Structures are given as C-alpha cells and as structure tokens.
Amino acid sequence: MTPLLSVRDLRVGFGRDHKANEVVKGVSFDLNAGETLAIVGESGSGKSVTALSINRLVDFGGGRITSGSIKLTRSDGSSLDVVRANERTLLGIRGRDVGMIFQEPMTSLNPVHTIGAQISEAFRLSKGLTGAAAHRASLEVLGRVRIPDAKSRLDYYPHQLSGGMRQRVMIAMALASSPRLLIADEPTTALDVTVQAQIMALLAELRAETGMSMIFITHDIGLVAGIADRIMVMQNGVAVEQNDTGAVLDDPQHEYTRHLLRAVPHFTSGKAVRSDGTRQETIDPIVKVDDLVVRFPVGRAWFGPKGAIHAVDGVSFDLMPGETLAIVGESGCGKSTTARALLNLNTPHRGQIQAGSGHSRRPVQMVFQDPFASLNPRLDVEALLAEPAIANGQRPDADLRERMHFLLDRVGLPRDALTRYPHQFSGGQRQRLCIARALMLNPDVVVLDEAVSALDVSVQARVLELLVDLQREFGLAYLFISHDMAVVERIAHRIAVMFAGQIVEIGDARAVLADPQHSYTKRLIAAVPAIERRKQHFAVDMTQVPSLVRPPGYEPPPALWHDNGQDHRVRLEETP
Fold this sequence. Notes:
By secondary structure, the chain is α/β, with parallel strands linked by helices. The chain has 20 helices and 22 strands.
C-alpha cells in the first residue's frame, strides 16, 4: 500500500548558512492512511521543525529544507513532492490535505476578530459555507470540543477566553477543514486532563470515521500511549528510535528513550504522595481564605450589566506554613482567578483573604506558567532579580548582590548568569530564574500557576525536586495550580478540586486521589493519561460544562458538605 506520507532523509537548517545550522538531520519515516505517528522528544529535538516542514510552514520561520524529499499522496491518487512544490500548490494542500493544530493558541488566533468570524472563515475556505450555514457549523464544532455557552462564545475575542478555551478553538478550526492528515503540535498542553481525554477521544473518533491520519507531537509519552500506532523518538535533530508503540514502551532500545520513560511522572492514584509534613492544626494558617467570591460583569443593559460571570463562588481554604495545597480543575473553573485574588490582582466581590501570621506580612510571590513572558527581555538577570527588592524599598548594595548569588546557587544556576539576558537561557533555566526572583523578598507563600506545565519531562522533574528542596529549606508554603494530576501527586500535601467556580472536594492528597468522592473528581482521576492505561479507550462525553454566566442578583444555594474521614471534605451534589 502506498503511504499517505513518505519522508526521506529530511534535513532542515536555519540562518544564513542553512547546512551549517541544521536542526533536522536526515529524518525518514512513512505514514499510512488512518495511521497515527507520535513524534516524541524534548525542546530543541527538532520534532516541531519536522512537522512544520511537511506543509512547508517552516519557510516562514527562517528555515529551509536543504535536502531530502516529502512525498504526499493526494486525494486523487497523485503524488506531490512538497519540497519542490510552488507556493500556489502549497496553498491548495494546507488545511484541506494537511491540517495543523499549533501549540500556542494566543499567537495563532487573530486578536482583532471574534472566535465566530475565525471559525466561519475556516468553513468558508475549506467547504464554501457562508452565512447561517457557516454559523451552524461553527456552533456544532465548538460543541464537539466541549466549549460551554457556544452560542455566546462565538462573539468573544481570543483574549476573553482562558488558555485552554483558546486551544479548543484552535482544534475546532483545524477540524473544520476535515483534513486527510492532521498535524497536532502539543495540542493539549494547556488543557486539563478531562478535556484532554475528551479531545484525544474526539481525535480518535474522527480518525475512525474519516480515515484521517495524524502526526502527534508531544513530550508526554503517556498521552500518546493509547492513540499512537507508532512512535518516533527524536534527539538533537535525529530520529534515534522508531517502532510500534508497544515495542517502544515495553522494550526501548535507545538510552535516550529509556531516559524519557524514566522521567515521565506516572500517576499512581495516591501511592506516590509525599510522606513528609504532617498537618498541625494547632498552628495558625499562613493563608486563610473565607467565602471568596469573584465576579466579572458581562453585557450592558439600560441600568447596568446584563449579568455576571461567577468565576469564583464561595471558595474557602487554609494553607499551613511549609505546606503545599494544590488546586486542580478544568480550564476556566476559577483556579487561576482564586490565585490572582490572593495576590490582589483580581478584586473580590466579597470574602476574606488573610495572608501571613503574627508579625510576618511578607508579600506573597508568584511564579507564572510562561517564564519567557514573565521576564523583561531588555533587562539582564541582575536587574531582574533586583527589581522586586528595590520596589520593596531595599537598596542595591552588596547585601542584595549576595542574596542574588545565594539564590542562583540554590536554583542551580552559575553566578555569572547575572550578566546574561533571558533569551540566553533554556526554558527550564528561565523558570529557575523566575523561582529565584520570587524568593528575593524571602516570602512565606509562593503561588505557582502552572509553573512546570510548559517544561520538558526531565526538566520538569528537576524543577519539582528543586521546589521540594526549597520548601524544606525555607519553610515555604506553596499554592500550586495545575492540571497535571501526576505532577500534583508528587508535590501536594493537600488537594482542592474546583469545578465551575466552586471547590467540590478538599483534603489530604492521598485521601482525595485514592478515594475520590465527588463525581467530577472521579472523572478527573479516570481521565489521567498513563503508559499503564494505554489500552483504556475514552468515550466522547458531550455533557456540557455548566455556564458561569448568571443573571443580576443571582446567589447560589448554600453549600452542604460531607466529611469523608479526617481531613477529607466533599461538597454534596445537587439532585437533578
């Protein structure tokens, strides 16, 4: 059988001397119709450049295919050598024959057009739909990727959606063209595990229905274990191993493949929870949040807003010194809004937030998800580290410089890093810089908002070890926000599960993960991808996430709770 795609000795370079600056070095593989190939590797391995070469989008990023061939079998049976095709021909295959889902949706969506306009454009260009037909198709495809309030979301702009919501819009746009080959470049990185499982199930369903082939690029081997037919492992631009999925996972031949498999955090339903740190109820909490409510007005009527988004509704928890509380839940559930309210970046509608105990009122510090966006590219490391201290009234003297040296040592960076700029560091090193900067004011509490989700698995493991070491050394309390349950299992002492703006289950990490009580927590844990679960097939769940938009004056009914043993509380679910 003729492969849908045949790549031979692909070499891609960047810069003035393309051959001297090769980042893809002789990659070859075949992809049959209806087959899924997973390309796995860490940042800089060349996996994304390989994918971008298949539809020649690499040309627009300064890259050039220096040698090799990419043969694509078209719908009429003809063979096209993509390497030698002209731009007019390439425009005909992009979207229709080869669809693409990019990793970063905010840079891929047009900020000045609504979501509806952009999805409708995809239907117009690929299927000729306009007007009401394009509108109906847009609504249907948004529903398939589980976007709540799809009708109203069509009028939203990209900045009005969470990162996970934006990624779902990107996936919807790619599916609009019904491509024969879909290239998915880290398409679920920003998604929580329940939506991730649904997207993976949806992609598997579409593949079964249409015979669509897929190239799935990821650093998470556990994610592709259940969907990929074959796996190709890349390191430094070379395909070091490729074979059937079972063979790669069960009997890896290359040392780098074995290294990747060791670095992947395996979810164990609570067995890997940290054993250090026993919660002492006699100590005053370092953070106490009571009945926190955060709302955002939406729409305008004659006498005020038409309603409000109940982003956070009645959230209460406390955080002890030296403890890690993880907040988990779907994108848009309110976990980041809760964290931002703690730092006074969002104004609460009502509720009490107390941070610090006794005479200690040190500023709460935050480490954000994207380290590159968090660091000013115009400032060197010395200026970046000094910035929070100077803003807090400290003088740029020898003591401050010694503090910088001390923290650089603790996060594993050389002292000469002070003279370097953010672009001169890797992603993992930049996140270490962000952690060092957060510790400059010697805080009691650090909020980590998806702080390791953008890192490769081996770098992620080292940063998690660093966070645990720093917590033990300085007695730090962490509010750890994440959608990765395997990571949460390894760092959290306690877990709060959020759904639709409310905490539905909270307590000891081992108790919550090993014995989940709320229906949403059960779905969350059941959806965690793992190598051991590769034979588990998820069904597409079309259950709609409850809308957070409420009419003016609406107040939710008071919460009723059930104690499921010591330090494990569950919100009672409303009967339909």
